[in-house]
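At this stage, I put together a protein sequence along with its fold in token form, as given directly below:
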Amino acid sequence: MRSLILSILILVFCQQVQAQQLSDQAKVSLLTCDPGSALYSAFGHSALRVHDPVMGLDLVFNYGTFDFNAPGFYVNFVRGKLNYFLAVNNYENFYRAYYREQRSMREQVLNLSEDQKQEVFDFLMINAQEENRYYQYDFFFDNCATRIRDVLQTVLGDRLKIPVQESDKTFRNLIDEYLGNMPWADFGIDLALGSVIDEVATSEEAMFLPDYMESGFAEASIVGDGPTRPLVASQEVIFDFEPVNESSLLVSPRIFWILLLIGVVLSYVSFKRNRIFRGFDIAWTLAYGLLGLLVAFLWFGTDHQATAGNWNILWAMPTHLLLAVALIRNKPLAWLSKYLLGAIIIVDAALLVWVFGVQSYHAVALPLIVLALLRLYVLYSRWLPRLK
């Protein structure tokens, strides 16, 4: 109900101000906000501000809005079908929200002509109407930052020149820069995202991150309607807080190295004393199988572009769930020998994918891969002969 009322109010508001002509005192600016402590805010935020003191307007156009109460929110989020929308807020409320969260904010006033300011404003007001405001969010290619870049490119066309900066950073490298104090999120994201994000991002593509769009705008220029001029006329720090860089977590994914050590000890005992630790093997095959199901679902069952081509599935194999069932039953099955031998070969292939740069895994994937190889070999050489 609240969402419906909000939508109606925004629609009425947009219809009221859409036809307004901005004064020569109007300013259009990019607001860039620092990352927050929650995962959804870990990469920062961008918004456009239109301030006209003569007309009494001070609005923030925010493309990063979604409705938790929308029907099927979580299902649509997981499947990559979640609609974000353009929200129009009062600047004072926007200011207070980020000040309360202690997230630094900076403003870049854009060096636009009066006609260009009006075009941007008109474009935003039309885009804010109910029938236009929704879009299907994509973290890398269609988000709160790229939408703002696209607004400027639509209005200015070829007159907007964003310099090409040489870089060897992939999309994965770029997001890793923001997850140093969120080790489990970093691991989970690396597990979920596929090889498509291991491509080098151009300087324009890197603008999916607000910080990179801020620096890109600072270097950009406007040409073709008089002397070339910088896109940014002035910039100001609205408020500044110290970033939180330290993780308070006592346990990080590096604990997987301890898991590998346990696996090495158990494997040594298996070979030395011909013992089988079925409980341990049931646990890891179940865990890997479930991870594999998740990877497969994100790859084939969703619209997320970034989860395609995910070769983590070579070591986190969904079929390990069948192996877990076989371990629980502990009975001879005709396919077990071929399965274990094939799984060893496939997990070796996972290492080759990493070595040859087809896909970059998270660092702690290495102990998990080695553990799988070690225990698969133990099962093939020690457990399987017992069943015959």
Notes: The chain has two domains: 2-167+202-239, 255-387. The longest strand covers residues 57-65. The two ends are 65 Å apart (CA to CA).
